[in-house]
Amino acid sequence: MTDTRRRVKVYTLNEDRQWDDRGTGHVSSGYVERLKGTSLLVRAESDGSLLLESKINPNTAYQKQQDTLIVWSEAENYDLALSFQEKAGCDEIWEKICQVQGKDPSVDITQDVVDESEEERFDDMSSPGLELPPCELNRLEDLAELVASSLPSPLRREKLALAVENEGYIRKLLELFRVCEDLENREGLHHLYEIMKGIFLLNRTALFEVMFSDECIMDVIGCLEFDPALPQPRRHREFLTKTARFKEVIPISDPELRQKIHQTYRVQYIQDMVLPTPSVFEENMLSTLHSFIFFNKVEIVGMLQDDEKFLTDLFAQLTDEATDDDKRHELVNFLKEFCAFSQTLQPQNRDAFFKTLSNMGILPALEVILGMDDVQVRGAATDIFSYLVEYNPSMVREFVMQESQQNDDVSIYTKDILLINLIIEHMICDTDPELGGAVQLMGLLRTLVDPENMLATANKTEKTEFLSFFYKHCMHVLSAPLLANTTEEKPSKDDFQTSQLLALILELLTFCVEHHTYHIKNYIINKDILRRVLVLTASRHAFLALCALRFMRRIIGLKDEFYNRYIMRNFLFEPVIKAFLNNGSRYNLMNSAIIEMFEYVRVEDVKSLTAHIIENYWKALEDVDYVQTFKGLKLRYEQQRERQDNPKLDSMRSILRNHRFRRDARTLEDEEEMWFNADEDDLEDGEAVVPPSDKMKSEEDLMEPISKFMERKKLKDSEEKEVLGKSSLSGRQNPSFKLSFSGSTKTSLSSPPSSASLNPGSPGSPGSPGSPGSGARSSPSTTTVTTKGGLVGLVDYPDDDDDEEEEEEEDGESKEDPLPPSKKSKLSS
Questions:
Q1: 54-82 b/e with 16+ CB inside 10 Å = b?
Q2: Cα(614)–Cα(624) distance, rounded to whole angstroms?
Q3: For residue 290, pLDDT beyond 90
Q4: I need a surface site. Which of 237, 324, 435, 627 has the fewest CB within 10 A?
Q5: Which ranges are annotated Low complexity under compositional bias (predicted)?
Q6: Among 27-31, 184-188, 341-345, which is the least confidently predicted range?
Q7: Is residue 180 within a helix (H) or strand (E), and if so which, with residue range?
Q8: How many other C-beta atoms are found inside a 10 Å radius of the C-beta of residue 144?
Q9: Which region among 107-116, 120-129, 422-431, 786-795 has the lowest average model confidence (pLDDT)?
Q10: Helices 140-150 and 186-201, interaxial angle, to 10°?
Q11: How far is CA 618 from CA 140, 538, 574, 621, 725, in A?
Q12: Over residues 755-784, mean pLDDT
């Protein structure tokens, strides 16, 4: 190839942000099957080998510079450049790139956003690294300006970092700092502050390793004391050397570990206290500093974890009764910080960490610590316990159950100081007016009793074992404040702090109602807990009264008849009704919560509770008319009474619901389907099938609406009609459906019904004009879905008619079959 227009040099940007020459060749563009797209190809002019094969990506930002340069990024840290010998060749390739990306070739950049200044980068491709001025007192101002001007440009930052690192510039600057401090050269110290702050923003690990070494770190902190914006320098070094004391609660024999702890503390101090709060633009520039601290903490945890002697001594002293309180206080704070450091570990390393602590006996040690009187020590122990519960609640549950088994033969007093009971007691006895510690402990207890994180194995079920243990040994401790405060009709103590505590206990009990089964049910019923809880509805604190209502609402929501019978037997709606009436006409949360509870009973048709409410409290509620809830409850109750007074109605409703929509594979006609749907809606709206009456209507009156409907269908579809029997009603038979009634008009309505008789009801309310009705029959009758001539009959009333008997025999169904009604209703073709 001798075409000089396409002759190019290929450059790539290396890790040091310097351009490397990859060779000279000739560039072309074409479709590359392997890359599935148009690509740029550069072949070496020496041997024809492939120097570059780069697909023209539609989203890549290409930039044309100085008429002969094209620069772009292949990946996050892989930048490329083509330097053309002639402008014409550059223009040809640029047009091809723009064609692929759908851009106008007149633009100099194919995408709107460019992360870095590519032009500046290529300008310095062949230039050497940044040259720093001599580290002299009179050149500090120039150096400060150079650092400030380099920070905005990523490339110049890289060059500056390399220059500072390669020339050992930091140590020279720190020597100069000591000179300025001795001379009290305030201007030079201010320049050194700006320079050192800028070096932090270079965000380079190699520089941090030098700055945070033992011989340099205090001088680095000294440089950062002289902020030009402050009238007087800070005294960070004085604090670190005189005020801050490193306490070895357990002697550390490893010098490397000790040095790492010192370094981490000081660097953390620099980050938190010395460096000014970074601006939004500078925040990412300190990411390497965050990483430095993070990895230091990981190393410290790992080194301590591997030192078995250290951990053994730690836990031995924690549990030793001879250890004085001050020493134990220091040990607990160290262990707390140790656990906090562990949060930086990866999941698998954290598993190993907590397993090590468990093997060392951290839970027995915590039990000892939680029994101490020192509030600060107990607070630190609570934080440690929270780390353990969040990490592995099963480990904690297993420990407390083993502890209980070991103490089976000891006194009740000893059982009351089980670890979990200590936690409950600390929650109850929290002295904080806002109960901050109690809230934290309640959350931990909730995690421990949550069945969702309990394990089930082949040989044992953690849920069953732990809940049995909890309700036997711990629940009485948890509910003690509630029972003590609800002995009268009103709470004994109704101050804010007591109410907050009771609200926390109720929240946990409500959680138990939702997630536990027979354990909490037995406890509530045997201890009469709900009655005690409802005393709190008389509290002057609305939040506590609402907690009590929520507790009862969760119980009702279970629709458990054991609970319902307990509520009715003890008339437990009475305090709720009293709270509702005492609230008056106020439209507030109390009003809404109580109405919602009764609305739930109505909508869910909880029959036993509906009857109980209306029979006992209707007079108190009948005047409430701004909602229809209570009138709806009364209507439900009346419907229940009607069904009880006329048991045949319930059977009719059952028959209709079981058979109304029985059909074959083909579909009902629209009019019939609308008729039946309307009837179902009527039934669901709670209208009585037959109004209460001492005297039954005659069969003719009851059957008249159906006769009219069937006659209309007959007239409309006369070509499809069929006479079903001499004494049967006329109906229409279409290809997909047949509704047949067969029976004797001579049957007496007054004859006593047999025990096996069924009572087909009408699909609608006979009290409504025009709706279909049905009469009750007293002869031994059956209701079934029959198939005649391949058609499905919805309802059938067999009698002594010979023709009907013959038809039923052909179908293999006998009217004399003594199946009970529930089975008859399931027979189908």
A1: bbbbeebbbbbbeebbbbbbeeeeebbbb
A2: 13
A3: no
A4: 324
A5: 736-762, 774-795
A6: 341-345
A7: helix 169-183
A8: 20
A9: 786-795
A10: 30
A11: 92, 21, 12, 5, 52
A12: 38
Tokens representing 516 are: 């536990």
Residue type, 764: G
Integer angstrom CA distances of residue 471 from 447, 517, 530: 16, 12, 17
Lowest mean pLDDT across 304-308, 524-528, 702-706: 702-706
CA max distance for the chain:
131
Contact in structure between 144 and 226 (CB atoms under 8 Å): no
Query: Minimal CA–CA distance to 732: which of 750, 745, 746, 720?
Result: 720
Which residues have C-beta within 8 Å of that of residue 677, sequence separation ≥ 6? none
Percentage of residues in the chain with pLDDT exceeding 70? 72
CA distance 384 to 391: 11
Residue 484: half-sphere exposure toward Cβ, Cα within 13 Å: 13
Distance CA 216, CA 212 (A): 6
Structure confidence by residue, pLDDT tens digits, 787-801: 334 444 334 444 444
Q: Output the pLDDT for position 407.
A: 67
447 closest CA partner among 505, 485, 396, 404: 396
Question: Encoding tokens for residue 617?
Answer: 């409290």
Q: Is residue 649 within 8 Å of 761, Cβ to Cβ?
A: yes
Residues 122/158, Cβ–Cβ less than 8 Å: no
Q: How far is CA 266 from the centre of its chain?
A: 38
Neighbours of 276 (CB within 10 A): 10
692: nearest Cα among 658, 642, 635, 644:
642
Alpha-carbon gap, residue 145 to 818, rounded angstroms: 107
Residue the block writes with tokens 């001539």: 789
**Amino acid present at 762:** S
Place of tokens 């800028």: 198
CB 299 within 8 A of CB 260: yes
Of the CA atoms within 13 Å of residue 95, those in its CB half-sphere come to 5
User: According to the model, what pLDDT value does residue 293 have?
Assistant: 86
In the block, residue with structure tokens 């406890």:
523
**Rounded Cα distance, 471 and 477, in Å:** 10
Cα four-point dihedral sign 806, 811, 812, 818? negative
Q: Which residues pair with 100 in a beta bridge?
A: none
3-state secondary structure 48-68: CCEEEEEECCCCCCCEEECCC
As a whole number of angstroms, the distance between CA 697 and CA 417 comes to: 74
CB 461 within 8 Å of CB 439: no
Cα separation of 821 and 829, whole Å? 17
413 band by pLDDT with thresholds 50, 70 and 90: very low
Q: How many Å apart are CA 522 and CA 518, to the nearest integer?
A: 6
Instruction: Collapse the DSSP code of 72 into the 3-class scheme (helix H, G, I; strand E, B; otherwise coil) and give the result.
Output: strand
List all residues 6 or more positions away from 529 whose beta carbon is below 8 Å from its beta carbon: 479, 482, 509, 523
Treating both helix axes as pointing N-terminal to C-terminal, what angle do 629-645 and 647-659 enclose, rounded to 10 degrees? 100
pLDDT tens string 665-678: 444 445 444 544 54
Please give the mean pLDDT across all residues of the chain.
Answer: 76
Binned at pLDDT 50, 70 and 90, residue 251 comes out as confident
Contact by Cβ (8 Å): 42, 26: yes
Cα–Cα dist 534/703, whole Å? 53
Residue 594 above 70 pLDDT? Answer: yes
- Which residues 6+ apart lie within 8 Å of 549 measured at CB? 537, 576, 579, 590, 593, 594, 597
Q: Which residues contact 771 (CB under 8 A, 6 or more apart)?
A: 679, 682, 705, 762, 764, 765
| 3-class DSSP assignment, residue 23 | strand
Higher pLDDT among residues 12 and 808, named by residue: 12
How far is it, in rounded angstroms, from Cα 317 to Cα 315? 5
| DSSP code, position 535 | G
